[in-house]
Amino acid sequence: MMVLVVGAGRVGSAVAKSSLAAGHTVSVLDEDPLSHERLDAGQPTSWEDAGGRFTVGTAIEIDALLAAGVEEADIFIAATRGDNTNILVAQVAQKRFGVPRVIVRVLDPARSDWYAEQGLHTICAVKLGVAMFEQAVLEAATTEV
Q1: Pick the CATH number of 2-143 from 3.40.1010.10, 3.40.350.10, 3.40.449.10, 3.40.50.720
Q2: Is 27 helix (H, G, I), strand (E, B) or coil?
Q3: pTM of the prediction?
């Protein structure tokens, strides 16, 4: 599988590294050339020597997506810091380039639900965090004497 990760922050770089370790072909697109350091960190070789690909560019630019390999992608992961960017590039990957599996990080729970209803696979850390806190409160309340 060819995995294209947009955004090489903590989330994107971790997913890219685990995908490469699982044997996938992985390409990462980020506008900050220094974000490449996250891909090399803790690795015995460089990202490229391990088989990874890194492209410097802005995700909302079609040329950058093409250079990163969007036309070859089987899985597209939008993991930048911005909901608007993630949603926009996820829709471009899905609708314009026909990427079979598009996964998008969305921080706003309401937007996450709406875009999930539109067919995007959304992951919302805020919703997951709220659910974990609610579960912890429930567990604490049921263990009190």
Answers
A1: 3.40.50.720
A2: strand
A3: 0.90
